[in-house]
Amino acid sequence: MRNRDVRCRVPSGLGTVLAVVALLGAVSTVAYGQSHMIDETRHVLVLHSYHAGYPWTDDIQRAIAATLGEHSYIELHVEYLDLIRYTGAEHRDFLGELLRRKYQRDDAWFDLVMVSDDQALDLALHHREELFPGVPVVFCGINDLRPERLVGHQPILGVTGMSDTVTIGETIDLAFHLRPHLDQIAVVSGSRPSEIMQYRSFVKAVETRSPGVTITHLNELREPELISRLATLGPETVVIYLSYLLSPTGQVYRFGDALSMVVANTGAMVLVPTDFLVRDGVVGGRVVDGYSQGREASLIALRLLDGEHPGSIPIQNQSESRYLFDDRALQRFGVSDEQLPDRSTLTNRSPERLIESQVRDGLPLFSDNDVFHAHGAVMLLIDLGSGTIVAANQAAYTYYGYPQLEGKNIGEINTLSPQEIAAEMRSAELERKNHFSFRHRRADGLERDVAVYSYPVRIQETDLLFSVVFDTTEQIAAQRIKARQTQIIFGILALLLVGAVAGVTLLFRHLRLTRSAAAALRKHLRIRNALMLEVQHRTKNNMQVIAGLISLQAAFSESSETCAAYGRLSGRVSTIALAHHRLISDGAVSYINLATYLHGVVDGALSETDCGEVRPRCFVEISDLDVLFDIAVPFGLIVNELVASGLRRLCRSDEDRRIRLQVSERESQMLELSYRDTIPANSDAREQCREEELGMLLIRELTEHQLGGSLSLAVSPDRGTECLVRISRNVYKDRVPYENSDS
């Protein structure tokens, strides 16, 4: 390649600007002076025309932060005006109001204002006197620095910086150089103010450079028309893409989308004037970069903060620029290395060129090549576009066993399909995913499980994928065994769970059936109890009818003995009827309260005995007990016979006599009846006992034979009659459970 001197032309109008600035600077040099001390904190306001995430702006901010951030006494205040995505006048008015509310103070507290690109400069100059009067302004990235832009804002003292207009002309020259038979140049530009300024710079630069060449102006076109006209361009046409982020209809585009739209819809070579646009099939150009702009502006800012007067720092028109080309786009258009200008930089190098640079030129891809090749881990450098391995260390050769790895496609090693590999590489490029699990095929034919950690790197202006590979075959096998064991365990647990669920289901079903059966049983018991109560009610009534008939028969009898016999018989029937009455009153089936029942029996005997003026004294002590009906009835008959007999004998005595009756429960479920009266047992009494031989016989039969108890009877001339009856409560068993008897 031939060495070529690069000389930058200075537009004629810019000389006026420099003259005005120099004149005003000379007048005020003494007034400005070096009034600041470095030990004080310096506040620098940075106004970016565009938004964070826009590569040009990000590069400028990165340079400002790197250059000024080294100095601890400088504090940066950064504002992004976002004038690509929000283009209306209302937004610009809002920005002015925002800056006023945020930064307007009685004292100008900023020491310096830095602006990037045209719209931020216009905003800063418009509000300078209001927000930061007399504060120096340093600009960069200005496309169209015409004299009237500064002269119209007085005073312009302290406004300096650098422009980036010169590379458009050199990019036009490059088009003739790359296409010797060039017959047409098409320029693409949008409707943003800065895009309009770039287009004007292109028009001014192309006037003296295109004799005999057709200039096609594709500026400020709507998208359908732009696409249609791009499609008509021939192979000997060069498209110079300035920027197309805003259409005439107000449609805002992302820079990558707009650039891809232009490249995809033309077969012509596309050149650009800015470094971050060399992508997506763009061939290249004489480009400026945002980082250089930001760095140079920051160096000017440091000179001003150190006390140097702005008037002594003229506006710089020679931006740092370079020839930058996409290697793969050059190959697509058949451009040889000999056609490239000297000191050209290649980006997105093809795998073949990277491998050639290592083999032929001995140029390592890593700055510390020994670390890469001597490291024990398997390492690969892979081309993102094609998947070609461009570098492999010694550990990779040892592991894979192939005689040559450089130039081999990763698809020959990875067992995934090419589409799957491309998708995974894309994820690694975008850093959405950096860890992968693959199966790699070695030279001996064995497939091994590997874990791959991949990260995008940029080496020699080319985006590559740096991958570190670890063999995980044994680990994967152990994990599979563990997974199978876990599956077996979970299978067993699942079976147990299913069994448990089935058991619980059956249990609930059994409980439901049990509840249903219990409900049916309760219903049956209620019906049975109602029937039994009805039977008892009818039995009681019949017994009372029988007692009434007996009393009626006694009334017609003329014999006193017969009447007395009828009376005793009636009392016995009434005693049985009373037992049925208690069952009905208590709502019971087979148990009645013994105390209540026997008190009723005693009261009945007292009411049936007429002793005239002799008042019987009867003392009754009965424990509160519930006993079976089968026990209560004969027990009541025994009490009736004893009390009725005692009352009859008491009525024949002239003295005050007493009867004492006690019923209690003793140990071992034994009921004890103790009867005692104080009526002397004279001959008449004995005769009476003979007369009442039936009652005593009834007492003995009931006690000993029906209830299976014991009876002791003592008759004394002095103490009267004593009778002790003992029976067991368990002589009869309940035919209906006691707890359900009241249901």
Describe this structure in words.
The chain has 743 residues and is α/β, with parallel strands linked by helices. Among the domains are: 12-163, Response regulator (Rossmann fold, 3-Layer(aba) Sandwich), CATH 3.40.50.2300; 362-471, PAS domain (Beta-Lactamase), CATH 3.30.450.20; 538-740, 2-Layer Sandwich (Heat Shock Protein 90), CATH 3.30.565. 46% of the residues lie in helices and 20% in strands. The strands form six sheets. Strands 2-1-3-4-5 form a five-stranded parallel sheet, sandwiched between helices. The chain has a five-stranded antiparallel sheet with strand order 14-13-17-16-15. The chain has a five-stranded mixed sheet with strand order 19-21-22-24-23. α12 (327-332) links the parallel β11 and β12. α20 (629-651) packs antiparallel against α22. Mean pLDDT is 81; it is low at 1-37, 683-691 and 739-743.
